Amino acid sequence: MTNSWLVQFETVATVSTCHIHAVRSFGTVGDMFSKIFLAVATNLAFATSVLAQGQPAQKRAATPEEMNTYTVISAVTLCQARKLGVDFEKSLTIGATGFYSAVAQKHGMKVPESRGKALNEQALSNGIALMTTAAAMEFCKENIPQETQDRLKAASDQLKKGGAN
Question: Residue 113: which of 121, 123, 98 has the closest Cα?
Fold first, then answer.
């Protein structure tokens, strides 16, 4: 390859660099999304490693308005990926990655419901996946697998009854 793009992610004391080589032809849409996902995942991995180094989380929690914005962006991205033929699980990952990165980097993994405390990676990831999928149901229900729709409905019904099993 003769061309390469340099993608650089910086923090206060650390710089991580990732080379992404240009491809003469993207081939399939899946290849293009794979390359985009790898670039975003590198950013996410870097952000996670910085957080894991024990740096104090002195960032404010995301506001409900910010959470709504991140949710809509991730849901629309999931829907677009589905319309381009990407399978649901990959589409969910593509859609939720930006949401996760914003909350992790900008807000120190704090959401309105966490009462000022940072969530762990699993709790944040699960919550974002749920919010993204639920919002996507409003934009592109026809592109959400029926099994996923059924699980969301069952979870919603359970919460309405007052139990969260």
Answer: 123
CA torsion 107→112→115→121, rounded to 10°?
-50
Specify whether the CB–CB gap between 137 and 153 falls below 8 A.
no
Phi, psi of 7 (to 5 degrees): -105, 120
The Cα–Cα gap between 16 and 154 comes to 43
Residue spans per domain, the chain: 4-160
**What one-letter code names the amino acid at 160?**
K
Kindly report, residue by residue over 1-12, the tens digit of the pLDDT: 333 333 332 323
CA distances from 161 to 106, 127, 130, 151, 154 (A): 35, 20, 19, 15, 11
Q: What is the pTM (predicted TM-score) of this model?
A: 0.63
Place of tokens 């409003």: 138
Q: Residue 151's Cα: distance from chain center in Å?
A: 20
**Cα dihedral across residues 41, 46, 47, 51: positive or negative:** positive
**27-55 pLDDT per residue, tens:** 344 454 455 555 555 555 555 555 555 55
